[in-house]
Amino acid sequence: MKILNLYAGIGGNRKLWGEEHDITAVEFNPKIAGVYKDLFPNDTVVVDDAHKYLLEHFQEFDFIWSSPPCPSHSHIRKELAMKRKQGEWFVQNKPIFPDMKLYEEILFLQGYFQGKYVVENVRSWYEPLLPPQEINKH
Predict the structure, then answer these.
(1) What are the φ and ψ backbone dihedral angles of 91, each rounded to 5 degrees?
(2) Concatenated DSSP letters of 27-44
(3) Whether the predicted model's global pTM rises above the 0.90 cut
């Protein structure tokens, strides 16, 4: 099976997939991509923007695993963003917009990809726009 591993990091999700697949990992940070390559020398490692790579190469794969960065969706980040203490508001983390690439990729894969896929992320602090399948904290 040809697998695309987006936002690969050092391969935390990859470690249970075995060696019988043709795996392409996409990681933006060259140093992190180097660690991944050391851990999984038989995989093809691409240093690039995963979101862009998906758009340009999705039809080359049988299975796509996408694990986009989740800080802007995390309920913990939001809880730490603004607090009221003794009637006063204070900001521990600056409030930010949720990064909607998560939903862009889900909708893109639903609409265009013919294979199987997983878009993995944390439980969001808002009501999800698309109903997720929830497992533990993801």
Answers:
(1) -115, 120
(2) ES-HHHHHHHHHH-TTSE
(3) no
